[in-house]
Amino acid sequence: MEFRARGRHSTLRLFIDRADGVSIEDCERVSRQASALLDVEDPISEKYRLEVSSPGLDRILFRAEQYRMYLGGTIDVRLTYAFDGRRNFVGRLVDVVDDELVLQVDEDEYVLPIEQVQRARVVPDFDEKDSNL
């Protein structure tokens, strides 16, 4: 779940996932159910748009368990505060230890606390030999 507060243009985004993929019907069903629940509970006082979708290939990562699923893969991390003079890192996820990411960027290895991650996304690997494009 992600909420972007932007006044009249705020968005509540719900990401759903299944092992065999997410269909448009899945998104529609969850949207109807979530909309009904949100109307009753009314947890957000301002106007917003509700979006329901699959996380996609460049999925956003929120929790340590999600990061662990992509060990060895490339991720794009933006920190809340600068670390070692920078906020943006793109590299191979080497490990997740407790609540810290170990990220290999070129020849350097960084240990980044997950609590300082503003946003992290998987960088899809479109290996030419596996591409159908």
Commentary on this structure:
The protein is of the alpha+beta class and 133 residues long. The chain folds into two domains: 2-53, no CATH class; 64-126, SH3 type barrels, CATH 2.30.30. 17% of the residues lie in helices and 41% in strands. It has two helices and eight strands. It has helices at residues 24-41, 64-68; strands spanning 2-4, 10-15, 48-53, 74-83, 86-97, 100-105, 108-113, 117-122. A five-stranded antiparallel β-sheet has the order 7-6-5-4-8. Strands 1-2-3 form a three-stranded mixed β-sheet. A hairpin with a 2-residue loop joins strand 4 and strand 5 (86-97). The model has no long low-confidence stretch (mean pLDDT 89).
Outline:
With 133 residues, this protein is of the alpha+beta class.
The protein's oligomeric status is single chain
Helical/strand content category = alpha+beta
Task: Name the CATH architecture of the largest domain.
Answer: Roll
State the name of the first-level CATH class of the largest domain. Mainly Beta
How much of the polypeptide forms β-strand, as a percent range? 35-45%
Round the mean pLDDT to the nearest integer and report it: 89
How do the SSEs run, as a string of H and E? Answer: EEHEHEEEEE
Largest sheet, if any? 5 strands, antiparallel
**End-to-end CA span:** 31 Å
Strand order in the largest sheet: 7-6-5-4-8
Low-confidence stretches: none
**Rg over alpha carbons:** 17 Å
State the helical fraction. 10-25%
**Count of the separate structural domains:** 2
Count helical runs: 2
Shape: globular
* Secondary structure: number of strands: 8
CATH topology of the largest domain: the name is SH3 type barrels
